[in-house]
């Protein structure tokens, strides 16, 4: 996380108790755009994001591109997947950027009163199978233990990667995300243990291997400190990360401008150079037309 991101987080934490009242007074992003939000005439978007790569990408946009597009990005950093959708629904945020469309679908199924919309894909973080001790997936021991994320969409994604590597076989779930109960064949009699996604890198020392989300692998520097045994394929991958807003703001001018910036050539180059193939820019923005 950059120094300026930490500063923004501190400011956001200090103002958390007032956030809902302030945002209620300010109205939607489009309303604030009409009224003007600061002395420079920039519209402030309050965006919830997980630290890496999401907050770093937003910080790059804020420092290099946002002002020319009439925007100021106030980045609020969250360290888990549970809070940003609730904060967005409750009006504490204008946008969040940390999740996949299947993850949002899962959230909306459990929270039917939340009226949130997925805007577009921005980047893909390739899942990886990591181990502290093993150097080859074929060396997984009989009776070993493999960690996977415990939320539905990411667990399914992790299990599909293990199945693609012939570690397990999954039952046909009819298109819904598989769970550990859908493991049909398990030749090594592995224990597949669901763990909160953010905790998987720390749990790796107690596991033979773990399937880890790209952002959490980067935060823990797993590409440098652990062995990558397998990578998720990117072709026809439905698990890109993108912007989410309240449905009423899906076409707001400020949101459209932010989406365009995130799909700009500058941001694409930043992702490719900063994360060298783990964070992959994907289409969806107007700038690619």
Strand content: 15-25%
Helix content class: 25-40%
Q: How do the strands line up in the largest sheet?
A: 2-1-3-12-4-13
Number of DSSP helical runs: 12
Largest sheet: 6 strands, mixed
- The CA-CA distance between the termini, in Å, is 31 Å
Instruction: State the secondary-structure class.
Output: alpha/beta
Average pLDDT: 87
- The residue ranges in which pLDDT falls below 50 over 5 or more consecutive positions are 1-26, 32-36, 284-289
Order of SSEs, N→C?
A: HHHEHEHEHEEEHEEEHEHHEEHHE
**Number of β-strand runs:** 13
Radius of gyration: 20 Å
Shape: globular
Characterization of this structure:
- With 289 residues, the protein is of the alpha/beta class.
- Helices cover 37% and strands 23% of the residues.
- It is built from twelve helices and 13 strands.
- A six-stranded mixed beta sheet has the order 2-1-3-12-4-13, with helices on both faces. A five-stranded mixed beta sheet has the order 9-6-10-5-11. It has a two-stranded antiparallel ribbon with strand order 7-8.
- Strand 1, helix 4 and strand 2 form a beta-alpha-beta unit.
- The longest helix is centred in the N-terminal third of the chain and has 14 residues.
- The radius of gyration is 20 Å and the shape is globular.
- The N terminus and C terminus are likely disordered.
Keywords:
single chain; 289 residues; alpha/beta; six-stranded mixed β-sheet; five-stranded mixed β-sheet; 12 helices; 13 strands; 23% strand; globular
Summarize the structure.
By secondary structure, the protein is an alpha/beta fold.
Sequence-ordered SSE layout with sheet pairings:
Layout: H1 3-14, H2 19-26, H3 29-35, E1 43-49, H4 51-64, E2 71-77, H5 83-89, E3 95-100, H6 101-110, E4 116-125, E5 128-131, E6 145-149, H7 152-164, E7 169-170, E8 183-185, E9 191-195, H8 200-203, E10 209-212, H9 214-219, H10 222-225, E11 227-231, E12 241-246, H11 253-262, H12 265-275, E13 279-281
Parallel strand pairs: 1-2, 1-3, 6-9, 6-10
Antiparallel strand pairs: 3-12, 4-12, 4-13, 5-10, 5-11, 7-8
């Amino acid at each position: 996380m950059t120094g300026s991101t930490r500063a923004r987080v501190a400011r956001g934490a200090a103002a958390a108790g007032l956030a809902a009242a302030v945002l209620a007074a300010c109205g939607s992003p489009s309303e604030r755009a009409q009224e003007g939000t600061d002395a420079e005439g920039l519209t402030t978007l309050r965006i919830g994001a997980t630290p890496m790569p999401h907050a770093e990408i937003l910080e790059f946009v804020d420092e290099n591109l946002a002002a020319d597009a009439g925007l100021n990005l106030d980045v609020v950093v969250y360290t888990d997947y549970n809070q940003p959708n609730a904060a967005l629904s409750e009006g504490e945020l204008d946008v969040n950027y940390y999740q996949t469309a299947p993850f949002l679908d899962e959230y909306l199924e459990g929270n039917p009163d939340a009226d949130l919309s997925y805007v577009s894909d921005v980047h893909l973080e390739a899942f990886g199978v990591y181990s502290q001790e093993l150097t080859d997936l074929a060396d997984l021991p009989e009776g070993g233990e493999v960690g996977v994320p415990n939320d539905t969409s990411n667990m399914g994604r992790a299990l599909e990667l293990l199945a693609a590597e012939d570690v397990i076989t999954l039952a046909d779930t009819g298109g819904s995300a598989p769970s550990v109960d859908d493991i049909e064949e398990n030749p090594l009699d592995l224990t597949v243990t669901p763990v909160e996604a953010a905790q998987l890198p720390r749990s790796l020392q107690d596991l033979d291997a773990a399937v880890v989300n790209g952002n959490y692998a980067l935060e823990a520097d797993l590409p440098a400190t652990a062995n990558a045994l397998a990578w998720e394929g990117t072709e026809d991958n439905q698990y890109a990360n993108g912007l989410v807003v309240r449905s009423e703001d899906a076409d707001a001018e400020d949101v459209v401008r932010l989406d365009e910036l995130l799909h700009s050539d500058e941001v694409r180059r930043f992702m490719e150079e900063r994360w060298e193939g783990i964070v992959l820019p994907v289409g969806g923005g107007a700038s690619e037309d």
